[in-house]
Design a protein that fits this description.
By secondary structure, the protein is of the alpha+beta class. It folds into two domains: 63 residues, no CATH class; 80 residues, no CATH class. Helix content is 46%, strand content 15%. The chain has a three-stranded mixed β-sheet. β6 and β7 form a beta hairpin. It is elongated.
Amino acid sequence: MRKFKCHRGTRMIRRKVRRKQRWSNRRGLQRVALGRTAKGEYADQRVFQALRAMRHGASASRAAQDNRISLRTLKQKAGAALVQEHPGGRYRATKNDPLLRPLQVPGKHGPVEIDVSARTARKFAKYKADINRALAGDPKALAKWRGKKIAGVQLITDVKVLADQADKGLLPYALYRSFSGGRR
């Protein structure tokens, strides 16, 4: 029986095509929602934590190890958020990435879950901090958020409504109220 060997030129072409496909996938600017299974959501949280660590100076492998994921998983799930300057070089996390994060925004009748990008998530983090300041007793903390929307959801700026939701346990991040005895 005779074995057929693949011609060297054909192998080179295949290799170049694969390489081109790999890099074209990273350049895509479409928004990418990560897996939504229970196991997948837990891995997604660790990927986001690893990206945060990379943005604060950790290397890709150190960030992956600290968050108990492999570097391969980090590359697979956050490939659009990682940039490699040249082949074999270090990976760095971009400031804004196209990965969508699930967030719970307080709505009039309870929390509303939305998927947002990194930039919108940063805005929401500032809003969350102002909610906690308002629940701790600062009456002007939510003044700059009146009439604003995040990802199409109208933001609540009424401290009484937010305090009622915090008392019912609908605001999982309103921790300061219980320690400071904030007013209603």
